[in-house]
Design a protein that fits this description.
about 230 residues; alpha+beta; five-stranded mixed beta sheet; three-stranded antiparallel beta sheet; about 25% helix
Length: about 230
């Protein structure tokens, strides 16, 4: 399935519960049970354990999906950038992860997180290498301003850097759906972890408004959308 219909894949981002995924505080390097989620209306948010929250049991898509392919977006993007390199100089992205419920039941957000977490950790060194190519070393100019400098072939990441789930890019055609998972490296493009969480929450609110309307809040709206069937 790896290259199935690549030229005919459609954007399926509106089908995925981005409004829930953006609320995740998902540290990819921590234990699975340390993942949290931000809940509550604007200015009244609280951070709670993800797997204890109702969001974990929600279908990851509407209409639901019982099978998806998962790729690491950063590694995939790096491969595309290398498409004109000699074959021996090209990197090989990790094999796809398949999440499938043979009984046709919906894949839940919790199931997605539970299976993607070890997959991302299994290939973390590959992901770090790709991130290191674009992260850049901080250097100060004579005027005191700081810039990031990248040197091709010399990837750099600070030691003990944090890695966090960022977002999902969803594409597909008919019954084939692929979710490309992106991550955020602590300090990437000069962004702190606290600023990153704030950005994620703003994205979640935008997705809620798009899905439910201007008055949307995570507490005032039903998480489930009745009347949909698995595909």
């Amino acid at each position: 399935m790896r290259d199935t219909m690549t030229s005919r894949l459609d954007d399926m981002g509106g089908r995925i519960r981005q409004d829930l995924l953006y609320r995740l505080r998902w540290n990819l390097l921590a234990a699975l049970d340390n993942i949290d989620i931000t809940t509550g209306p604007q200015d009244e948010e609280s951070v709670v354990p993800f797997f204890s929250d109702a969001a974990a049991e929600e279908s990851i898509a509407q209409p639901p999906l019982s099978r998806v392919e998962v790729r690491i977006d950063d590694c995939l993007a790096n491969r595309l950038e290398e498409m004109y390199f000699d074959e021996e100089d090209q990197s090989n992205p990790p094999a796809d992860l398949t999440i499938e419920n043979a009984d046709g039941s919906p894949i839940t957000v919790g199931q997605f997180v539970s299976q993607v977490h070890p997959y991302m950790n299994e290939h973390m060194e590959e992901n770090k290498k790709v991130k290191g190519e674009i992260y850049g070393r901080a250097e100060k100019r004579e005027d005191g301003t700081e810039v990031r400098v990248n040197i091709y072939g010399q990837p750099y990441l600070p030691p003990d850097i944090g890695f966090f789930f960022s977002r999902v890019w969803a594409v597909g055609h008919n019954d084939y759906v692929r979710l490309n998972v992106s991550s955020f490296a602590e300090g990437e493009i000069g962004t702190s972890v606290d600023d990153f969480w704030a950005i994620q929450l703003r994205q979640a609110r935008m997705c809620e408004q798009k899905r439910y309307g201007e008055q949307a809040t995570i507490e005032s709206l039903p998480l489930s959308e009745p009347g949909n069937t698995s595909v």
